[in-house]
Amino acid sequence: MARAHDELDEKILDAALQRILQVGIRRSSLDDIARRSGINRVTIYRRFSGKENLIETVLHREIRRILAEATAIAATTSGVEAQIEETVLYVLHLTRTHPLVTQMLAVSPEEALEFYTVRGEELVSQGISYIVGVLEGAQEKGVVGRYDPRPVAELVARFAHSLMLTPTAGADFGDEETARAFVRTAVVPLMLHGIGPSGAGRNPAPRETVAATRAEGL
């Protein structure tokens, strides 16, 4: 289990993130991060075992922040369909606009592409795990159908990752109405009922159960 980050860790991670956004990953040295954070290089190395692990920790922290914000959106949105719609739209929006995507592409486009391709497995895996957990919780509440959530979670996570790498093709996800219509017609039914006849037709969530839990988060 990963150790909890204290205030000093957070200061180092903040400095690393800012340096990455400024010059990219390759040009961000531990010396640079030490100067920016005001913490000596030896301390940074002891806490994060070098630059590679520090960069991975920065990425994981940003993903956790996004998922925590998505959870907060679900908790404050009424109705399971609206919860799915709003949280998916939020995540898809950030895959296109988060500084770790836009700023890295601006300062070092080749490095950014390599980074998100090589790190793609980690990104998608975290997304899958999160979505599986959300869907299993929703199934326990009876607000979505009883189906295997793993294929659905993988499709949605891979879709978000693909949108990050190729933002313009087919539907224009930069247009809010287009993005919302796509999510509402394609993603919401998928997450409510699963994949194919075996998912869509088996044990759907009763309408009265959905209505009774409109005020609850997924």
From TrEMBL:
Residues 198-218 are annotated as: Disordered. Residues 29-48 bind DNA. Residues 6-66 form the HTH tetR-type domain. Keywords: DNA-binding. One of its GO terms (molecular function) is DNA-binding transcription factor activity. It holds the Pfam family TetR_N. It comes from the Bacteria. The keyword ATP-binding does not apply. Gene3D superfamilies: Homeodomain-like, Tetracycline Repressor, domain 2. This is TetR/AcrR family transcriptional regulator.
